[in-house]
Amino acid sequence: MEKLSPRQESILNRVVETHIQTAQPVGSRMITALYQGLYRSSYSPATVRHEMGCLEEIGYLTHPHTSAGRVPTDWGYRYYVDHSLRQEELEGGHLRQLETDLAKLGGETNDFAEQVSQALSNLTGEVSVFMQNTRVCVQGSSRILEKPEFQSVEKVHIFLKALEEKEALAQWVTESAAESGVSVKIGRENKPEAFRSCAIVSARYSCPGGFSGTVAVFGPQRMKYARAVPIVFQISRIIARILDSEEENF
Fold it and tell me: Could you state, in order of their start, the residue ranges of all structural domains in the chain?
């Protein structure tokens, strides 16, 4: 992955963040107008347009033929996530209440799995997957219909069918998740064809007794990574603490 100059990196970040918000191709005039307080007069539309052309040449942006603007590629999103992502500060009180509510359900129950998955989906606005041993719980599948990238009936059908094949889904998500921390897979980094236009954020959880699993959210490549990454991480830690506590009390 080619290293960018500070100016190129700044412009790429602005294109990524604007595309995440709008789902529309981003032009140079839009960037200078939206971020004039950041760039002032130093980055003219011509300067931004030139740098966006350079970013396209090295594969970080692409140019839809129907628009004058550009959108990030898989590589563009990967560079942004690896080098520039600033995670949101999550509201601690809400997470503590969620942990309290989940602890009352007990980690081995179906209600616990459904509640975890529902919380993930609600907090991120994406499709969520929660796995304990052989149990796989999917919530928020209909959210994919809200995404402009998934207006094709065939595309949605392929995506939902892949979610229904839970054994294969569980195996692939578990293999993709990092041993520690949060894993982010974008576009063609996802081996299943059904998820090649998606981003998937996942994290493993475990407790000393050997019980382990994975939590994940699925969405378009323009997912709000700044929110999804810390939420997936924090919920994986909440699950681990609950299961650990149950082991100790057993």
Answer: 6-83, 92-249
- 1 by Cβ neighbours in 10 Å (0-12 / 13-18 / 19+) ranks as exposed
Same-fold call for 6-83 versus 92-249: no
Tell me the H-state helices in 35-165: 36-39, 45-57, 74-83, 92-105, 110-124, 153-164
Contacts of residue 228, Cβ cutoff 8 Å, sequence gap at least 6: 124, 126, 201, 217, 219
The verdict on domain 92-249 having CATH code 3.10.20.740 is: no
**Domain 6-83 coded CATH 3.30.240.20:** no
Strand partners, 137: 130
- Order across the sheet with 127-132: list the strands: 135-139, 127-132, 212-220, 198-206, 182-186
23 torsion bin: left (phi>0), alpha (psi -120 to 50), beta (else): left
Burial string for 112-122 (b: 16+ CB within 10 Å, else e) reads: bbebbbebbbe
Sign (positive/negative) of CA torsion 70, 71, 75, 81? positive
Residue 224: both structure tokens together = 């709000």
pTM of the model: 0.90
User: What's the rounded Cα separation, in Å, for the pair 88 and 64?
Assistant: 30
pLDDT tens digit string along 48-90?
Answer: 889 999 999 999 999 887 667 899 999 999 999 999 999 988 8
In order, the DSSP letters of 181-214 are SEEEEEGGGS-SGGGTTEEEEEEEEE-TTS-EEE
pLDDT in tens, 120-160: 999 999 999 998 766 889 999 999 888 998 888 998 999 99
